Amino acid sequence: MSDVFRLLTLQDANTRVVLLGVMLLGLASGVVGSFAVLRRRALVGDAVAHAALPGVCIAFMIIGDRNFIAFLIGALISGILAVVCITLLRRYTRVREDASIAVILTAFFGLGIALSRHIQQGGQYSGAGSRAGLDGFLLGKAASMVRQDVLAIALVALVVLLTVWVLYKELKLLCFDRAFAASLGRPVIGLDLLLMLLICLCTVIGLPAVGVVLMVSLLIVPGAAARFWTNRLSTMLVLGAAFGAFAGVLGAGVSAVAPRLSAGPLIALAAAAVFALSALLAPQSGFVWNSVRRRRLRSTTLVQNYLRALLELDEQRAAGVHSNAQLALKRAWSRVQLARAGRIASHAGWVAVSDAGATLTPAGQREAARVLRTHRLWELYLITHADVAPDHVDRDADALEHILSPEIVADLERRLIETGRLPALVPSPHPMGPTSAEAHA
Amino acid sequence: MSPISPITAPTDIAVEVHDVTVAYHRRPVLWDVDVLIPAGKLVAIVGPNGAGKSTLLKAILGLVPLASGKVEIFGRPLREERGLVGYVPQRESVDWDFPVSALDVVLMGRYGRLGWLRRPGPADKAAALKALDDVAMRPFADRQISQLSGGQQQRVFLARALAQDAMLYFMDEPFAGVDAATERAIIDVLRRLRQAGRTVVAVHHDLQTVPEYFDHVVMLNLRLVASGSTQEAFTHENLQKTYGGRLTLLDQAAEAVRRGGPL
């Protein structure tokens, strides 16, 4: 328990340093990752991360000892090499991008694993391999980071953030409309490579904390989660950075308290949790609000159809009570749906439901006539404006006046009147403005 | 709507395409195309699907590598005259779910003159809002672009080009899939551009409106079939050469509709 206390109060200088490093890492990865998501480079990021391992191993074999800077350079070189291979494969062969990514990722990662086993078992490096923390580079070991590592991480993270800040406008343009950027004379291939380089840099400084296997979680997941909350790029970047820093600090912090747990999986889990909460709860595009909206639309449609059917029965037969059996002939309703529609409609005061069936109240007749009118206007609009209509049509009849211009509505109404299909609006007890057709007449 | 400031083009010829061949994966998509585009006109590029219309635009803009030939803009290489050129890509070429507003997109039209490091300032914002005004999209400035209809998205793209304040515009199917109101808004903008001395080169699909909308026509089917003023070049014979058998079908359809009978 005292460990946790020491961690939370940041008493241990080393913990402070590690958490600071991971936080900067999370900020930089969140920002760069947001661009990677928008440029659809998530899988390339994963490949780069995995491809960093052989570079680290080769750097170790050359230097013969643990040297973080050498590791970074090695990882950077092999990461860039992987990107080059993927690009060449895609451009000069018929292999598609996803397949090229799979080929390169596994080839480089396989080489990396083989080399690291060779180092850890080979006589000439006896014991040095594990001292070098090569196994930590696989799944991340935040606790084994030392002050110099963190300084290097902080420095690279700051360079990455600064680059994005300076080139924000160009990266935004590149990700949104590459052809337009090229038409302005921007070197789009260079900018794409720069984005790749930034991804490589984030990956490389993430290796000691997160490891090659799961680094992509800190790179891609925060940006993907941020997209749920906002429709502004700048806000998305800030959120991505915040999510990345949060996931990094949480994962590394827990790993510091429980050293037997690798930091990588914990950081990946923290990032996944942030993503899950975003996907569920974000107000515009989250799952929960979407289902609420969908459910609401379903009951609105159900009740509108119910009222419409009652009014049509009124028109065809006589106004009065209509049984469920009669209603069932109009549409494919289940008994449960009919009961639910009757319940909602009578609650709103639109129908009186008895054992014999349902009757429209005066308020219900007005509502039904309004619904029928809009539905018929939409139908007519689909026919008369077939070239553009699908672009505008909203399934909810209520949206008509918001979407179509008053002139179009008036024109459609005139056509309905000519064919005698405009439902008579029952005079309201409350004073109401004239319908647009009357206003134009 | 304020007028577009008039400009006199530096030369009578806006674009000179000289012996241009473009190939994707060894299959030629443009073959030895040689064409002069006059300045200050509305110019349509027409031809069947896969004729290389978009590719010709991209070749002129330097977006695809040329297998052979060269392109000159107002008598100079494109590289030296990029600032004079505006571009409206096909609407489908970008992700409309991208987290930017209509105003953000239009502001991108100012990036060319801003260079790498400067950010858009109040003058750029004013120019962008004016451009939105010119296509009747000012009220939608702060809308996220996915919440716009197809026609509105096309108008935002056009506004971005207007914000470029270019002398020569290339538009890739600006009328594709838009509603009647947008089509009117676009042709209105094109005419005002012409009035202000600008040149517009547009890939166009609707053969019926070519004589009404455009002064000059470039007819393409891998190779150049004809190029000239609409009056002289847009003839039935040239259409036959451009579209081959496909035009007969179009003809029959138009004929049938006119007579009100079935095909």
Q: What can you see in these coordinates?
A:
The complex is a heterodimer of chains A (441) and B (263). Chain A has a two-stranded antiparallel ribbon with strand order 1-2. The longest helix of chain A is centred in the C-terminal third of the chain and has 30 residues, at 287-316. Chain A is elongated. Chain A has two domains: 2-282, Orthogonal Bundle (ABC transporter involved in vitamin B12 uptake, BtuC), CATH 1.10.3470.10; 290-440, Orthogonal Bundle (Arc Repressor Mutant, subunit A). Chain A has helices at 2-8, 13-38, 42-63, 68-92, 97-121, 128-131, 136-139, 147-166, 168-176, 178-183, 188-210, 215-227, 233-257, 263-281, 287-316, 324-330, 335-347, 362-384, 389-392, 400-403, 406-418, 436-440, and strands spanning 351-353, 358-360. Helices cover 74% and strands 1% of the residues of chain A. Chain A is mainly α and 441 residues long. Mean pLDDT of chain A is 82; it is low at 426-441. The N and C termini of chain A lie far apart (81 Å). With 263 residues, chain B is an alpha/beta fold. Chain B has a domain at 13-95 and 168-259: Rossmann fold (3-Layer(aba) Sandwich), CATH 3.40.50.300. Chain B has helices spanning 53-60, 78-81, 102-107, 111-114, 122-134, 150-164, 180-195, 210-213, 230-233, 236-243, 245-259; strands at residues 13-24, 27-38, 42-46, 68-73, 76-77, 85-88, 168-172, 199-203, 216-221, 223-229. In chain B, β1 (13-24) and β2 (27-38) form a beta hairpin. Chain A binds chain B through residues 38, 166-167, 169-170, 172-173, 175-177, 179-180, 182-185, 227, 230-233, 235-236, 385, 387-388, 391-392, and chain B through 58, 61-63, 79, 82, 85, 87, 89, 93-95, 98-101, 104-105, 108, 111-112, 114, 116-117, 119-120, 144, 146, 149-151, 160, 170, 178-180.
